[in-house]
Write a structure and sequence with these properties.
There is one protein chain. By secondary structure, this protein is of the alpha/beta class. It has a domain at 1-97: Metal-dependent hydrolases (TIM Barrel, Alpha-Beta Barrel). The protein is 44% helix and 15% strand. α2 (30-36) links the parallel β1 (18-21) and β2 (42-53). The mean pLDDT is 94.
């Protein structure tokens, strides 16, 4: 909903040295972002992509590691949902994230799958994503989870799954608009498309590093720092700007 340059500006002002662009099944912002990137700032090109796995469609996050990875993003975005074999074929030049509530891993978590199965699913991905619990409050309204405490426990569960599977866990914002005050604009847009309720009200604004750390204060301070700062920078270091 915001100009991509505004997101880059906010990231720079927050002393962030890199930012990933992961629009849903679209590479449309790549050119504009490249033009608005300041000197020394790393722009990571990516996608949130629907992936066809068997009879199910899951969401996954794709980040390009290099120019070949960027070309793969264009190819994968041209046919969605992308078959999982096509994703596997291109993955040498990509980093794969576990996605949002519609990702394969979080869907299995909501379905109450055993830890062994969750660990096996996590093994496919290069990094495990966790979001602020408030981002997923709409799942309560949808009857998929009981309350905010259960959402918090899911974050803790994913952090533990990541450790067992040997995968870095990263906190992500699933940013859809720039400032908290812009929420009514997104809500109005979604309502015009027939989407109402708490999903339309989700607080998917650009959070600063300090705000993201505060969202995960239910974890130990070292763990919150690891998933918000250490591991996000680790992932960025694996990608060419």
């Amino acid at each position: 909903m915001a100009d991509v340059g505004e997101y880059i500006k906010k990231a720079s002002e927050d002393c962030q040295s890199a930012m990933a662009i992961t629009d849903f099944a679209s590479v449309g912002a790549f050119s504009e972002a490249g033009l608005k990137k300041p000197e020394g700032f790393k722009l990571i090109y990516g996608l949130e992509l629907p992936v066809l796995s068997g009879a199910r469609v899951y969401h996954a996050t794709l980040l390009s590691k290099n120019a070949a990875g960027r070309e793969a993003l264009y190819m994968l975005a041209s046919e969605t949902p992308a078959p999982k074999p096509a994703l596997e074929k291109a993955r040498d030049n990509l980093l794969l994230g576990s996605g949002c509530d519609e990702g394969e891993l979080y869907s299995a978590l909501l379905a109450g799958k055993p830890d062994e199965e969750l660990i096996n699913i996590a093994a496919f991905y290069d990094f495990i994503e966790v979001q602020p619990a408030s981002n997923f409050e709409f799942l309560i309204e949808q009857g998929k989870i009981t309350d905010i405490n259960a959402l918090v426990e899911n974050v803790k569960k994913l952090v533990n799954i990541g450790k067992i599977a040997g995968k870095p866990v990263v906190s992500v914002g699933d940013v859809c608009f720039s400032d908290k005050e812009d929420a009514p604009r997104r809500e109005s847009l979604l309502e015009s498309l027939g989407v109402v309720g708490s999903y339309a009200k989700a607080p998917l604004y650009f959070r600063t590093t300090a705000e993201m750390l505060a969202e995960f204060r239910f974890l130990s301070d070292p763990t919150a720092w690891e998933i918000t700062v250490v591991n996000t920078n680790k992932i960025a270091s694996l990608c060419e700007g």
